[in-house]
Amino acid sequence: MVPIPDNSKSSVSPETDGAHPSDASAASKRSSSSTQLRPGLYIVATPIGNLGDLSDRAAAILTTADTIACEDTRVTGKLLSARGIKARMISYHDHSSESVRQGIIERLKKGETVALVSDAGTPLVSDPGYRLVTDAVDAGVYVTAAPGPASPLVALVLSGLPSDRFLFAGYLPAKDKGRRDTIAEFATLRATLIFLESPRRLAGSLAALADGLGNRPAAIARELTKLYEEVIRGRLDDLAETFRHEDAPKGEVVLVVGPPEEAPVDVDEIDALLTYSLSRMSVRDTAATVAAATGAPRKEIYRRALELSRDIDPDEQ
């Protein structure tokens, strides 16, 4: 097990220029922390661009936690310095060893408070933390979250696409076959789809999405909450053609793709199918068959089948 020294609380405050606080100061902070925070693991969301998006609660947790587990201590150090927060930081990311993770669990078992942060946004949402949270839950320690920024949700609410039902699918595979296979899995899902994407792969992913999902409405969101925030809305075919001729955009990209669009219902065609089917099967079976064939809501098809069945002469059935 890799030990995590108790006296290595690093400061990122410009006043101390990275100097370590005294042991007495560290002990005093831990004592103060224990009265303000329940011992356990705190999953803390951090800004994805605008530093003003760090909530007061998140700042308080980062100030009083015994340890902050960071994806990159240099990145988190800049955030803490900007907010005047002094804290002990340790590195924890997807490539951290089992011993590092278990060292954090041991701290939690001893009654310490540990804040988990990623470089930006909400830990575990395409960021490190899943294994640590799972181990903490298995160990029976207290786990909670200070919610906040997450680029997939920001992109969704800015996209102008349906937000009542959505799926966040992370990054699409880099290789063509894996990307096509993944897109095919979602082709019939009646929900808005959210993907993260590398700017250099954006054009290829847009073309693959258009090919696999059809020409659906979509949105490309980049530099969210930052000075040059941009949301480009359009149809997948048009977006794919546009970015095929343009240089790759800068900044993290989030792709939002609308659900399958409902095809217009041909009432006369449905009635004809219902009448034909009712002459050969029950109302229930007729409704199930026609609903499956047309994609129309089964409840409405069943209601219409009942109406038509009353008009059919029993001798004709």
Keywords:
317 residues, alpha/beta, Cobalt-precorrin-4 Transmethylase, domain 1, Methyltransferase, Cobalt-precorrin-4 Transmethylase, Domain 2, 5-stranded parallel beta sheet, 5-stranded mixed beta sheet, 12 helices, 10 strands, 42% helix, 16% strand, disordered N terminus
Short description:
By secondary structure, this protein is an alpha/beta fold.
Give an account of the 3D structure:
By secondary structure, this protein is an alpha/beta fold. It has three domains: 23-149, Tetrapyrrole methylase, N-terminal domain (Cobalt-precorrin-4 Transmethylase, domain 1); 152-257, 2-Layer Sandwich (Methyltransferase, Cobalt-precorrin-4 Transmethylase, Domain 2); 267-316. Helices cover 42% and strands 16% of the residues. It has helices spanning 23-36, 56-64, 73-82, 98-109, 130-138, 151-159, 176-186, 202-213, 236-244, 267-278, 283-294, 298-310, and strands at 40-44, 67-70, 89-91, 113-117, 143-146, 166-171, 192-197, 217-222, 230-235, 253-257. A five-stranded parallel sheet has the order 3-2-4-1-5. α7 links the parallel β6 and β7 (192-197). α4 (98-109) packs across α5 and α7 packs across α8. The longest helix is centred in the first third of the chain and has 14 residues, at 23-36. The chain is elongated and about 80 Å long. Residues 1-35 have low confidence and may be disordered.
